[in-house]
Amino acid sequence: MRLIKSGCRGLSRFVILLGCCLFPLIWPAPDAAAGQEIVIGEINPRSGHLAKHGAEIHEGILYAVEEANSRGGLGGYPLRLISRDDQSKPEVAINQAQNLIHREKVVGLLGGYVDSLVGPISELAAKYRVPYVASASLQRSLTARKNPYFFRVSRLDGLVRPLCQFTAQAMKAKRVAILHTATPGSAEFAASVKSCLEKAGVAVPLLEKFRPGCPDFSVFLLKVRQAKVDVLISGGFYADNLILVRQMQEGPLGLRAFVAPWGVAYQSFIAEMGRGAEGLFGTCAWSPGITLPGTERASQTFVEGFRQRFGQVPNTTTMHGYTSARALLAAIDAVLTTGVKPTGEAISQALRQLDLSLPMERLKFDEYGDPRFYQQVVVQIQGRQMVPVYPLERATGQVDESLARR
Amino acid sequence: MWVWVQILISSLSLGSFYALVALGFSLILGITQAFNLAHGDLIILSGYLAFALWKFYQVPFFWTLPVCLLAMPLVLLPLQMLLRQVKEPYGLNTLVVTFGIALLLQNAMLVVFSADYRLIRPELPHYTFPELPLTFTLNQATLLVLSLAATGLVHLVLRRTFLGKALRATIEDREAAQLAGINVKQMGLVAFGLGGLLIGLAGPLYGQNMYLYPAAGTEATLIAIVITIFAGLGRSRGILLGGWLLGLAESVAALTLGIRWRELVSAAVLLILLYFKPQGISSAREG
Predict the structure, then answer these.
(1) Contact flag A222-B7 (C-beta cutoff 8 Å)
(2) Which of A120, A383, A396, B19 lies deepest, with the highest CB count within 10 Å?
(3) Which helix (DSSP H) or strand (DSSP E) does residue B106 occupy?
(4) CB neighbours of residue B74 within 10 Å
(5) What pairs with residue B137 in β-bridges?
(6) What's the ipTM?
(7) Is residue A284 helix, strand or coil?
(8) A313-347: per-residue pLDDT in tens?
(9) Inter-chain contact B115–A54, Cβ cutoff 8 Å?
(10) How far is the alpha carbon of A239 from chain B, nearest alpha carbon, in Å?
C-alpha cells in the first residue's frame, strides 16, 4: 500500500514537473487574430563593444513601431515590441532569439549588427519559420542559400561598387592599401574591393586584417608609408577608425585619400575627431540631407519626428533600423489586409512582394532576400559637414583633394 | 633601420602604458590577494571623469590627471571595505564580488555616459625629424614619462621605505608578516590607496590613447592580468619590463607577420614564459 502511495506521489510530482515544463509550449500564444496585439521581437547589441550601434538601430526600430501605433497599429491591432540585448555576443543572440520565438511567440524578428550576430539568428529564423529582417548585414553567404525567412535592408554590392568606382575613377588611384576587421562582412568587403580594384587596374600591395578593438595601428601605418600607396581604405568600425585617424595625424603618410565605409560618415565621429576629420571620405546610405531623390519630404518628417522623440539627430545606422522595421510592418499590414492570419510563412511571402519607397532606398527584395536597390554614396567631410561627392548623379559637391591629403 | 627605431619608440610608449594599467592590479592582488576583476572598469571610470572635465568644463587635459589621481583612491575605499567582509575562500569570492561590481559599473557608465565612444583629444604637438623618417609625438612622450615616473615611484616606495618593506613582506607571506607584527589590514588599505592612484593616472591616458566606452574595462583588466602573470606579483620593474616586452612582441608581429598576429604572438610569448618561468620574468632578480 505504502509502495502504491509513494508511487502515486512520485507520479503526481512527475506530472506537475512535466506540466511546468510544458506550460510555455501548451499555453496559447497571443494571437493577432484573437484580438490582442501583434508582438515583434528585436535583438540588438545594447551592451558590449557594439552597444553604440545597437542603440542606434534600436531607436530606429522603436520609432517605426511607435509611428505605426500612433496611426492605430496594423489592421486595428496594436504593436508590441520586445527588445533584447545580445551583449555583442553570438551565443547570447541565439538564446535571445530562441526566447523571443518560443516564449514570446513573436511574429517577426528585427535588428542585428555585424554578420557574426545576424548569421545565427537567420538560421533560427529558417528553422522555426519566423521572418527576420536584419538591419545591418552584408555577408553574401547568409543569403546565398535562399533562406525564405531571412531578409536584409543592406547588401555588399551597394557598398563595394560605389567605393571601388570612386577610388579607381574619381580619385584615379594607382596603389591602394586595405585594412579590415576579422568579421565576416568586413573580410568579404575587403576581398570584394580588392578584386574590383585590381580589375580596374589598381594595385593593392597591402591588405591586412585585424581584430576589432585593436589599440595601436602605428606599425600598420608605417607599412602604409613604406608601400607608397595613394589611398587607404579602412574596413574598420567606428571605434577602430577613431584610433586609426588619430594615429594618422601623427605623421605624414603620403596619402591622397582615406576612405572608410563604417564610422566616418557620422556627425558624432566628426564631433569627436574635430579638425582631424576634415577631408576624410566615408560612405553612407542615408543621412539628414542625403536622401533618395523623391523622398526628401519623408526624410525631413522622419528627422523632425525622431529629434522630438529622442532629442537627437538620427544617423545612417538609425535609418537602417527604421527601414528594416518599416519593411516588416508593411508586410504584416499586407497580410492583415487580406484577412489572413499573420503566420511566419504569410509574412515572408508578403516581404518577397514588397515594394516600398523609403528615404534610404527603394526597398524591394530579390529572390535571395537582398535589397535590389541599396546603394551608398561617398561623402567627404568638408567644414564639418558630410558632402556627397560620388556617384555624380547624387553629388552635391566636389572632391577637395588638398583637404584629403594625409 | 629607421623602421626598427620607430617600432621601438611605439613599443616603449605602448608597453609603458600597459605597465601602468597592470601595476595597480598587481599591487592589490599581491598585498590583499583580492582578484579585482573591476580593475579595468575603474580605469574606464577614471577616464570618463577626465573626459567629463575636459569636454564639459574645458579643463586642460594635464589638469585632469591630478583630479583623477585624487578621486580614484576615494572610489576604491568603499571597494576595499566591501572586500574586507568577504569570507574564505577569499581569492575566489573576491573574483565573484568584483565581477559583480564590474557589471554594475559598466551598466552605470552606460546609463550616465551612453554607449557612445568617447575620445579625449588634447591638441598635442608632433615632432618629426626632417632628416630621418621618424615621428615622435608628445602623446608618446607623455605615456612614457608618466608611466616611468609612476613605476619608478612605486619601486622607490617598495624598495626604499619601511612601508615598502612591510608591503613586500605582506606580498611574500601574509601570515609570516602578521606574526612579525605587520598590520596586514592596514597594508590592504595602502594597497588600495596606491592602486587607486595608479588607476586615477591610467584612466585619462586610456581615454587619450584609446577610446572610452562602458564595456572597455574588460580589455584593460585582461591587459593587467596578462602583464601580472608575465611579471609576477607586485614586481614593479618586472611589470615595466613585461609591458615593454608585450608592446615590442605585438609591434614586431604586426610588422613582420601582419597586424592580425599581434594578439596571437603575445599569447604565445606568455605561454612560453609560463612554461619556462612560471613565477614571472623578474622572479630570479627580485625574488
Answers:
(1) yes
(2) B19
(3) helix B90-113
(4) 11
(5) B126
(6) 0.78
(7) strand
(8) 999 999 999 999 999 999 999 999 998 889 999 99
(9) yes
(10) 7
